[in-house]
């Protein structure tokens, strides 16, 4: 099957992407690792000893970064619909966290402890219909925010990938209502033409 111009463009971009190459050299599972590294350098979200929840974690690019950051005294609980190869010191729960049984499994893993940081790099399966994709992605980040509100310690942090478009401003307002400080980041590893930005929220008001 002939590749469409768009997918060929994406493939060329992907193959020649300095972050894709860097990830291969550094042994990271995805170029997304560099997004979190940069955000954390600026915003100091994750510290040694933290309990971190990684939503939409496959293939594991973020968990790979977080596990060494929190160290042996910290914990990483990751979840995704897709399978993810195991990572040392990361507990992975496969399933759709929008389903109660999976959600309960994640919460049970916390064993009544509260979380210091919730990170989400989730994106929906892209249908190609912009409006549909935007609604799907907003739905996911709203669920991630719900999860954060349920599990975060007072003063905890939240970081989620969001696509600018319908619902974005309202979502930002909603996040601001629950956190003391909210900033928008567009990491260098984000492709310039992508509408993705990262909402970084600190100081959860319980």
UniProtKB/TrEMBL annotation:
Keyword terms, alphabetized: Cytoplasm, Methyltransferase, rRNA processing, S-adenosyl-L-methionine, Transferase
Listed InterPro entries: RNA_methyltr_RlmE, RNA_MeTrfase_FtsJ_dom, rRNA-MeTfrase_E, SAM-dependent_MTases_sf
EC category: transferase
Gene Ontology cellular-component terms listed: cytoplasm
Active site: 161
The protein's Enzyme Commission number: 2.1.1.166
A matching Pfam family: FtsJ
MF (Gene Ontology): rRNA (uridine-2'-O-)-methyltransferase activity
Positions of S-adenosyl-L-methionine binding: 60, 62, 80, 96, 121
Reaction(s) catalysed by this chain's protein: uridine(2552) in 23S rRNA + S-adenosyl-L-methionine = 2'-O-methyluridine(2552) in 23S rRNA + S-adenosyl-L-homocysteine + H(+)
Ribosomal RNA methyltransferase FtsJ domain residues: 28-204
NCBIfam families xrefs: PRK11188.1 (NF008390)
Function in brief: Specifically methylates the uridine in position 2552 of 23S rRNA at the 2'-O position of the ribose in the fully assembled 50S ribosomal subunit.
HAMAP family assigned: RNA_methyltr_E
UniProt family annotation: Belongs to the class I-like SAM-binding methyltransferase superfamily. RNA methyltransferase RlmE family.
Identification of the protein by name: Ribosomal RNA large subunit methyltransferase E
Native organism: Aliiglaciecola lipolytica E3
């Amino acid at each position: 099957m002939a590749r469409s111009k768009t997918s060929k463009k994406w493939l060329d971009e992907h193959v020649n992407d300095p972050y894709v190459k860097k990830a291969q050299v550094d042994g990271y599972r995805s170029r997304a690792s560099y997004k979190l590294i940069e955000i954390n350098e600026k915003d100091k979200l994750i510290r040694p000893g933290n309990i971190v929840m990684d939503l939409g974690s496959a293939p594991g690019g973020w968990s790979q970064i977080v596990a060494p950051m929190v160290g042996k005294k910290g914990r990483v609980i990751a979840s995704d619909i897709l399978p993810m190869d195991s990572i040392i010191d990361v507990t992975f729960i496969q399933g759709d966290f929008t389903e109660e049984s999976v959600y309960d499994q994640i919460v049970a893993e916390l064993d009544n402890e509260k979380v210091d940081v919730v990170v989400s790099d989730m994106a929906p399966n892209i249908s190609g219909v912009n409006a549909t994709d935007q609604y799907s992605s907003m739905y996911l980040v709203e669920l991630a925010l719900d999860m954060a509100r349920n599990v975060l310690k007072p003063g905890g942090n939240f970081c989620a990938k969001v696509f600018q478009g319908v619902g974005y401003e309202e979502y930002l307002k909603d996040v601001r209502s629950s956190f003391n400080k909210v900033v928008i980041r567009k990491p260098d590893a984000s492709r310039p033409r992508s509408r993705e930005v990262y909402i970084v929220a600190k100081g959860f008001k319980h």
